[in-house]
């Protein structure tokens, strides 16, 4: 009895394990197919990642190829024979000092009349006094003639040493002329003195005198300017040089200046100023001046001024701004080409890996399943033994 049971158990175990082995072989075959697909997918993903890495690396290599900087000469024409017309810088003026008959009385040895300094609005210079003194008696009497300022007139009256602008003695008619260069040397009053030349010869003299001078006109009338609004510089730049020339159309003298904005207005207002260029009383000039970047990119004034008396003029000027500008240039074309090749190769590899992964994907057919009554797991319908719990299951009847 015991032997019979043991034989039965051996037979059951053999049958169970035989079915289990059969089922596991099926799983093994299926697992092998799935493993091959998984390995193919992993290889495809690895190749795809390598392709992407090559693509990115090639792009970076091309973009970040070694580069060199070169300083390239640049220039901008500011003006070509630009005319700057101006009015006369100085205007001639004149005024009467005296038109008077001076008669020496019987109880005096002299008599006088005076004329006052003219009023000037602007800077004045080159004063000239001209006139005549003519004895009016018949027959004419001799007289002495003096032109003095107030201080020297007092000295002359006191018999002290004195200085006169003009003096002559023993004349019946005089034409006189003297000049004073600076405005501050012109006295507030001129004293015209008639003195008897001999006792009891009392002269009567008609004196006419005129003072003339030149007076500076308004700077707005006597000058003209051209404004350059500065270079537009984007890249790093250096070595700015302003070059050019200026000349008067008919060869007259002129003054020429180049200012920044602040100093131009200082010059207009008569305040202290500095200039890039300043040339006075020239018929032509050329210039070449170095500028800082801030100066070259700011407003620049080119100014012509007329220094002449009663003469207008036209100054023509030309100017060019030159500088060096930094430009970045790829050092080697090879870096760009090599980077492009690597990027292209990476893109091709990534595409191939993706295509292979899609094509090699196995087609899985769905098998009919049933539930194991022993463990409740889903198993293929053709399994005789549940691979999860080992319980024998009956095959369904063939259809």
Q: How would you concisely characterize the structure shown here?
A:
The protein has three domains: 2-64 and 336-364; 70-88 and 219-329, GOLD domain (Jelly Rolls, Sandwich); 90-216, Sandwich (Jelly Rolls). 29% of the residues lie in helices and 41% in strands.
Give a verbal description of the structure.
This protein has helices spanning 2-63, 150-158, 219-222, 261-268, 293-296, 333-359; strands at 67-86, 90-103, 110-116, 124-135, 143-148, 166-171, 173-182, 189-196, 204-216, 223-228, 237-248, 254-260, 277-282, 284-291, 300-305, 313-330, 369-371, 378-380. Strand 17 and strand 18 (378-380) form a beta hairpin. Helix content is 29%, strand content 41%. It has three domains: 2-64 and 336-364; 70-88 and 219-329, GOLD domain (Jelly Rolls, Sandwich), CATH 2.60.120; 90-216, Jelly Rolls (Sandwich). The two termini are 41 Å apart. The chain has six helices and 18 strands. Helix 1 (2-63) packs antiparallel against helix 6. With 399 residues, it is of the alpha+beta class. It has a four-stranded antiparallel sheet with strand order 1-16-11-14.
Topology:
Elements: H1 2-63, E1 67-86, E2 90-103, E3 110-116, E4 124-135, E5 143-148, H2 150-158, E6 166-171, E7 173-182, E8 189-196, E9 204-216, H3 219-222, E10 223-228, E11 237-248, E12 254-260, H4 261-268, E13 277-282, E14 284-291, H5 293-296, E15 300-305, E16 313-330, H6 333-359, E17 369-371, E18 378-380
Antiparallel strand pairs: 1-16, 2-9, 3-8, 4-7, 4-9, 5-6, 5-8, 10-15, 11-14, 11-16, 12-13, 12-15, 17-18
Helix pairs in contact: 1-6
